[in-house]
């Protein structure tokens, strides 16, 4: 066991992936000598050289599109998109090409491309640097999407992503890059299946589902609720495509109430998908409607008011109050 | 190839092209690169300081092969168009007029080269030994691919314009890495050097991905040949809306050679492409070839060229027909006789018959294949939806065998499936 931040855990995970798989390589803007704008790739070019850690031209479609070509030639590229809001120039390559290559080749071709996207707000940044576009990708069949919330998961999930034969997007909660935690670099343990949700806190009165940057918020809300005598279960979803509905269903069958929290706008977001599925699967167990806590239907607001936009402990507790009132 | 007659003019371009070139000259302060032409529309062969050397490698047998290929793919095109009109294909993308650009470039490639086509490269497919009946699977609606690219190094068609140009550059970057890995692991091993060719059109040249692919190719000196077929029309929009300068001139801005070749001259196309692929394989970096040609028919069977262009323009290009041009040369040089051309026609009819017969027999796939191929690894949502589909389908089967029992949607089976 060793303690490190999420950023360092991803760095170590990438180092292990590059060492274990000679056909793996990193591609992105400023990931070489600079080590990435968040220093997640720090030191890797010195260790593996510029053919394995490639500073690319400033072109997101180019990064994803050439990664597809490299994958077709047998390589395992890991692309870094510098910020969430900058993925859209590469959106076409991801959704019309990367996601569909295996299907349209009748299974003959595989494109094991990994795309790393730092996402979410709360860092006081300017526009296009704080978005949560995960639902746009989760809606696209052919992609897998995971998001770690702690260093141990981050260390293992990035390596599992490189090993995965399907294209996979790993959304990294950028405001948690400096969150420290213990990492077991020998054993993945419970992180062994990156597509399985984790129950982080057991409870009986209600379930809160969160992922990525909101996991610590959900845990804090559950702890605050405990002071009011409410025993709340917290689930870290970890995988957004596929979603581990079995774990959520099992929890809701026990607690009877579900709150889904994410930073992305509520409308059309993954919270709606989870609410609908759980309503189908556990309708007779539900004591209250599934309540969503998320961002508003607006472009991510300016940093000075982002605290009003981002779901926080109070917003989750308010939702819990509403659920408990039924 | 013994003839030495130079064409009397550089290239008998259209008025549109003259205007373009004049504008280019005015804009750049220099004339556009000259058009490479070896075989003029009258069927006479000229010389070129660089490319004649390559053209001379085309012995009589190879020249006859180029003609036979062009005739075969034109016959195939006619048959596929007919199949579409008869309702056997959902859509067809005709290539008539572009045979020389495709056969000439495709035949210049080596088996180890990898080709990324757009969606009109039926002639290139022929040169890569793709079964042309398989090629129709996409247009018949039984597949989104139809062949295994690994068998022929000919990638699937890409319908999203220009997306494949980036795939080509990435693939070429992979070839570079393979060479380094091979040199490290086994210096004695010698494999033929490979290059990649990316096809796209004048319309697609406006897409950002073409620009990004050229930036990447140039930055990493990737062994890739960009082959732009300028067929003058992006569905109904003329090439003047895509560019003010010859498209080949754009290569200069990226820092690699751009060559404009008479795309209806199969000998020049073959020579230029062979040179470019050699250039790329030798590690000298990318090349852009603009094959200046013309789409004689519609963009697809869904549009009507009479709504957007004059028949006189089409007629002027019919005079530059790539097949007639090579036939004239083969006849005047006594390289092919009536028997040869009769045989080519008979072979074409046989190909058409094969394609027609096989297309009718293409089996409709089971949608279970789509469930199986969405992901490589097991996926719970796909498994859940497949299980639902199986149960739902079984419900209909039960209804068929159990008279009076309605097992259709909204029945017990459906409700159970929905309540899992």
Protein architecture, described:
The complex is a heterodimer of chains A (326) and B (420). With 326 residues, chain A is an alpha/beta fold. Chain A is built from 12 helices and 14 strands. In chain A, the strands form 3 sheets. Chain A has a 7-stranded mixed β-sheet with strand order 3-2-4-5-7-6-12, with helices on both faces. Chain A is globular, with a radius of gyration of 19 Å. Chain A starts with a strand and ends with a helix. In chain A, 58% of the residues are buried. The model of chain A has no long low-confidence stretch (mean pLDDT 98). With 420 residues, chain B is an alpha/beta fold. Chain B is 49% helix and 8% strand. Chain B contains 18 helices and 8 strands. The interface between A and B is large, with 52 and 47 residues.
Task: Write the topology of this structure.
The complex is a heterodimer of chains A (326) and B (420).
Chain A: E1 2-5, H1 6-20, E2 24-28, H2 44-48, E3 53-55, H3 60-72, E4 76-80, H4 91-98, H5 101-104, E5 114-119, H6 134-138, E6 144-146, H7 151-163, E7 168-173, E8 180-183, E9 198-201, E10 206-210, H8 215-227, E11 232-236, E12 239-241, H9 245-255, E13 258-265, H10 270-281, E14 291-295, H11 306-309, H12 313-324
Parallel strand pairs in A: 2-3, 2-4, 4-5, 5-7, 6-7, 10-11, 10-13, 13-14
Antiparallel strand pairs in A: 1-8, 6-12, 9-11
Helix pairs in contact in A: 1-7, 3-4, 8-12, 9-10
Chain B: H1 15-28, E1 35-36, H2 52-55, H3 60-85, H4 99-108, E2 114-116, H5 122-127, H6 132-135, H7 137-140, H8 149-152, H9 163-185, E3 196-201, H10 208-219, E4 224-230, E5 233-234, E6 237-238, H11 250-254, E7 258-262, H12 266-281, E8 287-292, H13 311-318, H14 322-332, H15 338-361, H16 367-373, H17 380-401, H18 412-418
Parallel strand pairs in B: 1-7, 2-3, 3-4, 4-8, 7-8
Antiparallel strand pairs in B: 5-6
């Amino acid at each position: 066991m060793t303690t490190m931040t999420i950023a360092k855990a991803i760095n170590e995970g990438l180092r292990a992936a590059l060492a274990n798989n000679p056909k793996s390589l990193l591609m992105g803007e400023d990931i070489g000598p600079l080590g990435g704008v968040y220093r997640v790739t720090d030191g890797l070019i010195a260790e593996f050289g510029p053919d394995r850690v490639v500073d690319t031209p400033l072109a997101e479609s180019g990064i994803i599109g050439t990664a597809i070509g490299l994958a077709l030639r047998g390589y395992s590229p890991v692309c870094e998109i510098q910020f969430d809001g900058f993925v859209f120039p590469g959106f076409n390559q991801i959704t019309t090409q990367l996601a569909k290559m295996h299907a349209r080749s009748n299974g003959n071709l595989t494109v094991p491309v990994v795309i790393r996207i730092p996402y979410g707000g709360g860092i006081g940044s300017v526009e296009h640097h704080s978005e949560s576009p995960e639902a746009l990708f989760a809606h696209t069949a052919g992609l897998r999407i995971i998001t770690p919330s702690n260093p141990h998961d981050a260390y293992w999930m990035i390596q599992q992503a490189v090993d995965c034969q399907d294209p996979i997007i790993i959304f990294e909660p950028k405001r948690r890059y400096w969150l420290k935690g213990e990492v077991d670099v020998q054993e993945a343990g419970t992180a062994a299946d990156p597509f399985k949700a984790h129950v982080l806190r057991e409870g009986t009165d209600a379930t809160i589902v969160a992922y990525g940057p909101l996991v610590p918020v959900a845990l804090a809300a559950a702890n605050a609720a405990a002071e009011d005598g409410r025993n709340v279960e917290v689930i870290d979803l970890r995988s957004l495509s596929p979603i581990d509905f079995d774990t959520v269903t099992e929890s809701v069958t026990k607690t009877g109430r579900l709150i889904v929290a994410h930073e992305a706008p509520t409308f059309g977001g993954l919270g709606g998908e989870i609410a609908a599925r759980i309503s189908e699967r556990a309708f007779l167990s539900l004591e209250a409607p599934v309540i969503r806590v998320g961002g508003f239907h607006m472009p991510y607001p300016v940093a000075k008011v982002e605290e009003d936009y981002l779901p926080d402990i109070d917003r989750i507790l308010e939702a819990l109050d509403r659920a408990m009132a039924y | 190839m013994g003839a030495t007659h130079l064409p009397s003019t550089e290239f008998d371009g259209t008025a549109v092209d003259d205007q373009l070139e004049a504008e280019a000259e005015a804009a750049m302060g220099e004339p556009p690169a000259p058009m490479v032409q070896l075989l003029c529309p009258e069927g006479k062969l000229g010389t070129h300081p660089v490319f004649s050397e390559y053209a001379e490698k085309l012995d009589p047998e190879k020249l006859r092969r180029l003609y036979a290929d062009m005739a075969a793919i034109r016959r195939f095109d006619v048959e596929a168009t007919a199949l579409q009109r008869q309702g056997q294909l959902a859509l067809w993308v005709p290539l008539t007029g572009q045979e020389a650009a495709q056969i000439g470039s495709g035949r210049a490639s080596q088996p180890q080269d990898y080709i990324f086509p757009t969606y009109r490269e039926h002639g290139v497919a022929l040169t890569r030994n793709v079964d042309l009946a398989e090629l129709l699977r996409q247009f018949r609606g039984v597949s989104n691919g139809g062949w295994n690219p690994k068998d022929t190094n000919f990638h699937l068609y890409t319908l999203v314009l220009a997306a494949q140009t980036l795939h080509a550059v990435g693939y070429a970057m992979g070839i570079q890495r393979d060479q380094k890995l091979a040199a490290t692991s086994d210096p004695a091993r010698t494999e033929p050097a490979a290059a990649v060719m990316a096809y796209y059109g004048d319309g697609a040249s406006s897409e950002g991905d073409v620009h990004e692919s050229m930036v990447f190719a140039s930055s990493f000196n990737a062994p890739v040949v960009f082959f732009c077929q300028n067929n003058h029309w992006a569905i109904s929009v003329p090439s003047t809306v895509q560019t003010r300068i010859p498209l080949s001139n754009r290569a200069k801005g990226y820092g690699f050679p751009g060559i404009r070749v008479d795309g209806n001259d199969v000998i020049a196309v073959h020579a230029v492409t062979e040179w470019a692929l050699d250039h790329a394989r030798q590690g000298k970096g990318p090349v852009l070839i603009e094959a200046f040609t013309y789409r004689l028919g519609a963009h697809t069977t869904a549009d009507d060229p009479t709504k957007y262009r004059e028949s006189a323009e089409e007629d002027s290009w019919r005079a530059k027909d790539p097949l007639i041009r090579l036939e004239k040369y083969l006849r005047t040089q006594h390289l092919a006789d009536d028997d040869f051309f009769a045989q080519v026609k008979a072979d074409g009819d046989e190909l058409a018959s094969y394609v027609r017969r096989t297309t009718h027999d293409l089996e409709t796939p089971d949608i279970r294949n789509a469930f199986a191929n969405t992901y490589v690894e097991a996926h719970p949502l796909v498994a859940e939806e497949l299980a639902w589909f199986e149960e739902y389908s079984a419900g209909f089967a039960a209804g068929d065998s159990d008279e009076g029992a309605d097992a259709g949607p909204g029945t017990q089976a459906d409700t159970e499936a929905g309540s899992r």
